[in-house]
């Protein structure tokens, strides 16, 4: 999941906050996620403020997850191969069947290509959600955007 729309009025990229539109988008995507997924076993969230705020809004819409981890490797310019390996390892250790990653572009698009062979990196709308079945030779099942969030 990509973070919701964020304002550009912060001194540092990591301190950008969600806009009102971004808050609405995150809530809408949380509702969509709640309707599609019975349980999230592991949540991995970027340390950046806008991703943290997105997660805080989504968490009120879904069943409580098994474990939540703030992962420094989920920043926009992180290495996708290294991050994908870390996500897979954490999911295995936690015995997680369903993992929610809340992060940023361009990383999310590249992570999709790490988990799904032979695809171009997809573009995520703000608060957009990609559903992938399986981490090894996975399948991109759907891309969802909170179109009616505003």
Automatic annotation (TrEMBL):
Concerning SUPFAM superfamilies, the annotation shows:
Phosphoglycerate mutase-like (SSF53254)
A Pfam family recorded for this sequence? His_Phos_1
Query: What InterPro entries does this protein map onto?
Result: His_Pase_superF_clade-1, His_PPase_superfam, SixA
Q: What domain of life is recorded for the organism? A: Bacteria
Q: Which GO terms describe its cellular component?
A: cytoplasm
One annotated GO molecular function is:
protein histidine phosphatase activity
What's the protein called, per UniProt?
Phosphohistidine phosphatase SixA
Give the organism, scientific name. Paraferrimonas sedimenticola
